[in-house]
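Hello again,

I reread your note about wanting to compare the complex against the isolated chains. To keep things tidy I'm splitting this into two emails, and this first one only covers the full assembly. Below are the input lines as submitted, including protein chains and any nucleic acid or small-molecule components. They are followed by the predicted structure of everything together. The single-chain runs will come separately.
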Amino acid sequence: MGSTIIGCGKCLPALEVENDELKALVDTNDEWISTRTGIKSRRVAVDETNSDLAEVAARQALGWIDGGHAERRLDPSEIDLIICATITPDVVSPSEAGLLRRRLGLSNAIAFDLNAACSGFVYGLAMAESMMAAAAPSVAGAAGRNPVRRALVVGAERLTRLTDWSDRNTCVLFGDGAGAAVLEWSDERPGILSSFIANEDDEANALTCAAAYEAPQPFDARGISLDAAAAGDPGLARIDEELAIGEAVADGKPRQVLRMNGPKVFKFASEAMTAAIRAALDRANLSLDDVACIVPHQANERIIKYAAKKLGCPLDLFQLSIAHTGNSSAASVPMALADAYESGRIQRGDKVVLVAFGGGFTSGAVVYEA
Ligand code: ACO
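Full-complex prediction:
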């Protein structure tokens, strides 16, 4: 008995940008990018919105269009919950999940977004599974909760809209895309066996992105002040100081871009990924020998190689999809999952680990039986 993944899908935008093409923007080259990250090219959404990408991935996962992997075609009325993990929603309201609900006609579903950066999809699966388990008919108090028998969990990002294309330390890393999975509560199949999600403080502000609200604020501490609207938002200025980006913003650099101290994030990521895999496997009473495939967040191939070495397992246990996607944050794990199904490396009954880390700092892993 448990929540089983019965469908998944992915969507990449049309434009592919090769490493060497980025030379037109910053001082870089294919050799540096490929050897340091494993990335050869990334996709950039130009015409596509984040919800366009999410919609295609979701349609595949629901078995409505070709591509992806779907055990069966679902009826729109069967979906009770939509969680969209994203840090780049097209709009603040409605949520990305709300837009998907409308576009897909999933009129029975409750829908909301989740921000846990690159770990968002793994957090989303853990949350959907908890809601489904709490509402299972055999559970005390289930009748008092929203019944959730099937959930659509999406990771969708248009990260290139938050990328500072003049910063070679970050701009070579990111790409756009979306992935989706359908979870179904089953009385027969075990599905998700365990989950582990964790946070620690990013005390050095190694990975930040401030929001850029545009509405002028015609108030100061005494009340309405038309001068205050021109002077800017003192609250945001304090947050900029807290994130240590005040100087850059005062120098006229854009506020809403991803800023990263690569080596610090690398250190956190390498430790967090192995810790999350070990913790989730422990909770499921399994060892790495039981696992057919690990689907990791695709941030940097070197982080994945480090994890394989530290865990003492072969690199080919890990699904590697980064070469032609770059780091697509919350979309990266579900897109890599769709790739793993497409290549046939996940078969019914296999034990699979999904693992991610990201800004916040967040990290997490989910173990399931396919
Ligand atoms: N092209 C050429 N040279 C470059 C580039 C580039 N694109 N970027 C940096 N360099 C240079 C640096 O300036 C530095 O030069 P210097 O020694 O003269 O100062 C040199 O290369 C080495 O730079 P490092 O930052 O030490 O390189 P490192 O080997 O650590 O790799 C990288 C950098 C790829 C960013 C790595 O640290 C990394 O992958 N970190 C983790 C990133 C990550 O996983 N982020 C995930 C979260 S993202 C999210 O949540 C949205």
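For quick reference: Residues 28, 32-33, 36-37, 117-118, 168-169, 172, 207, 258, 262-263, 265-266, 269, 299-300, 303, 327, 329, 358-359 surround acetyl coenzyme *A (CB under 6 Å).

B.
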